[in-house]
Amino acid sequence: MKLITFNREGASRVGAIIDNEVIDLNLAYQVLVESEGKLRARQIAEAFVPADMNGFLQGGKESVELAKNAIQFALENRENKGRKLVFSVYDVKLEAPVPNPGKMICVGHNYREHILEMGREIPKFPVLFAKFSDTVIGPEDDIPFFPISEQLDYEAEFAFVIGKKARNVSQEVALDYVAGYTIVNDVTYRDIQRRTIQWLQGKTVEGSAPMGPWLITSDELTDPSGLEVVLTVNGEERQHTNTANLVFSVQYLVGFLSNLVTLEPGDVILTGTPGGVGFAMNPQVFLKDGDIVKISIDKIGSLENKVKKVIEQE
C-alpha cells in the first residue's frame, strides 16, 4: 500500500494512492462502519484509522488491514451523502507522508563509496545525527535556499519509518517494527555543517528534508536490500548506488538504535547517502536557484523538488 498525507481545502489527511486516485482512509472507514449499522462511527474511525499519519501508524498492522478494507469500500462507493471518499491526485496536494515525525535519526557514513570520497575510514559503529521535524517538506514543495551560505548540497537517502514501539529489539525480528519505506533528501549547508565537529547546524535548517512522495508499507516492500538509488540534478546523474552497499543494514539500525532509545511509531530513520555529493566533486558543485533534484529508488518511486532562493525581508 502507498500511504500518503494529502491536503485538501486546508486540511491534512491520511490517504492511500492507487492509479492516480487518492482515498481518504479515515472518512472511508467511517462510512464503512456506518454502512454496517454501528453507532459512533466517527469515533470508531478516529480510534482505528485516524486522520493523521502518526496516529495511524500507532494502530500498527490492525490499522493497515482496516485501511485496506476501507480502500475497497471506497472504490466501490466513491461518494456517500455528499461526502467524497476518492479524489484525483491532481485535486489534492501531496505532503510529506510523515509530516511531523517524533524523531528524525540520520546515519552518516553508511555507504562505502561516500565514506571514501569524504576521506574517512569505515566506522565500527553508526555515525548518528538528527534533523528537526520542521525540516520536513513535501514532494510538491520547493527546497528553500536561505542566504546563509552558498554551499547547498544534496544527499539521496533511503529512509524507513517505525511502525510500533521498539526497545532492545534483535536484528532477527527488526523488520517487524518497520511500518514502511520512503525517500528523503538530506539537504545540507556544507560550510555550516563543517565549521564545528558537530554536524547538526548544517543539517537542520528549515525545509532541508524533502520527503515522499509516499510511504510504501513493509508488507509490500518486504526486503529493504538490493534497491537501486539514483539522484539527478537537472537530469544529470550525480549519485547511484544500491541499498545492498549499506555498511549498517536496516535490521542492524533498528537493533542498534532501539538499544539507545525507544523508537516510536512515526519515527523516521535516514540510512545514509552514497558517493557523488557536490562537496566531493572536483571542482565542487553546489545547488543553485532553480535546480531540479530528483531521487529515485526501486519499488518506492521518485521524489522531485526545485531549489528556490529565499529573499529575506528586512
**CATH homologous superfamily of the largest domain, by name?**
Fumarylacetoacetase-like, C-terminal domain
Terminal-residue CA separation: 46 Å
Q: Ranges with pLDDT <50 over ≥5 residues?
A: none
Overall pLDDT confidence? 95
What series of H and E elements makes up the topology? EEEHHHHEEEEEHEEEEEEEHHEEEHEEE
Instruction: Please give the radius of gyration in angstroms.
Output: 20 Å
Major sheet details: 12 strands, mixed
Task: Let me know the number of strands.
Answer: 21
Please indicate the percent range of residues in DSSP E strands (runs of 2 or more): 25-35%
Structural class: alpha+beta
Instruction: Write down the CATH topology of the largest domain.
Output: Fumarylacetoacetate hydrolase, domain 2
The helix fraction, in percent, is 10-25%
CATH architecture of the largest domain: Alpha-Beta Complex
The number of helices is 8
Overall 3D form: globular
CATH class of the largest domain: Alpha Beta
Number of domains in the coordinates?
2
What does this 3D model show about the protein?
It is built from 8 helices and 21 strands. By secondary structure, the protein is of the alpha+beta class. It folds into 2 domains: 2-94, Fumarylacetoacetase, N-terminal domain (SH3 type barrels, Roll), CATH 2.30.30.230; 96-309, Fumarylacetoacetase-like, C-terminal domain (Fumarylacetoacetate hydrolase, domain 2). Strand 17 and strand 18 form a beta hairpin. Helix 1 (25-35) packs across helix 2 and helix 1 packs across helix 4. The mean pLDDT is 95.
